[in-house]
Amino acid sequence: NITDADRAKELFGQYGVWDTEENNGVLIYLNLSDRAIEIYLDRAATRVVKQNELNEIVKRIEESFSQGQFESGVCNAFKELAKLLAPAFPNKLVENPVPNEPVIL
């Protein structure tokens, strides 16, 4: 039986989120039917963002979702992650970036 964490890791690879120049890709996995949320980070990003910070972000997503604020919950999560990652990975122009569009399965 595959766990949500395993599925997030699988999708991370399947969609090439790992294929960033600085190994700092991020995937937010939402299993709406099971109400599960996983945040999967590439190896360089895991050296910057601590697990307790990810847990807090997941908690805030859950709180937003419980209030029916789905879009803002996810957008705020990405903003929080960007703020945590920005000191180590400042914005720069990338020629072939990994797609940033949501994928619905």
Question: Layout of helices and strands, plus pairs?
Answer:
Blueprint: H1 4-14, E1 26-31, E2 36-41, H2 43-46, H3 51-66, H4 70-85
Antiparallel strand pairs: 1-2
Overview in brief:
By secondary structure, the protein is an alpha+beta fold.
Report on the architecture of this protein:
This protein has 105 residues and is of the alpha+beta class. The chain has one domain (4-85): Diaminopimelate Epimerase, Chain A, domain 1 (Roll), CATH 3.10.310.50. The chain is 45% helix and 11% strand. A two-stranded antiparallel sheet has the order 1-2. Helix 3 (51-66) runs antiparallel to helix 4 (70-85). It is globular and about 35 Å long. The mean pLDDT is 91.
Number of helices: 4
List low-pLDDT spans.
none
Radius of gyration, in angstroms, nearest whole number: 14 Å
Number of strands: 2
Order of helices and strands: HEEHHH
**Order of the strands making up the biggest sheet:** 1-2
Corresponding CATH architecture: Roll
Strand content: 5-15%
Sketch the major β-sheet: 2 strands, antiparallel
As for the CATH topology, it is Diaminopimelate Epimerase, Chain A, domain 1
Supply the number of structural domains: 1
Which oligomerization state do the chains in this entry correspond to? single chain
Proportion of residues in helical segments: 40-55%
**End-to-end separation:** 18 Å
Mean pLDDT: 91
Give the CA-based shape.
globular
Name of the CATH class: Alpha Beta
Which structural class is indicated by helix and strand composition?
alpha+beta
